[in-house]
Amino acid sequence: MISDAPMARIAWQFVLAFVMACNAVAARQRLRRDDFPDERRP
After folding, report:
1. Which parts of the chain fold into alpha helices (H)?
2. Alpha carbon 39 to its chain's center
3. Distance between CA 35 and CA 8 in Å, rounded?
């Protein structure tokens, strides 16, 4: 179980980094959509 701790910590940090990256991309797309509302057409 002790040998699994470093891998679990690395996986958890990777998940957190992935979530923060997704949030940054979503926020950037939301800001771009507010600046240019006609950029996104159905």
Report:
1. 4-35
2. 23
3. 41
34/36 Cα distance (integer angstroms)? 6
pLDDT of residue 30: 82
Supply the DSSP symbol for 38: T
Q: How far is CA 24 from the centre of its chain?
A: 6
- In the chain, the amino acid numbered 13 is Q
Positive or negative: CA dihedral 10, 16, 18, 21: negative
Give 5-34 pLDDT, tens digit per residue.
888 899 999 999 999 999 999 988 887 767
Work out the end-to-end distance of the chain between its first and last CA atoms, rounded to an integer number of angstroms.
Answer: 51
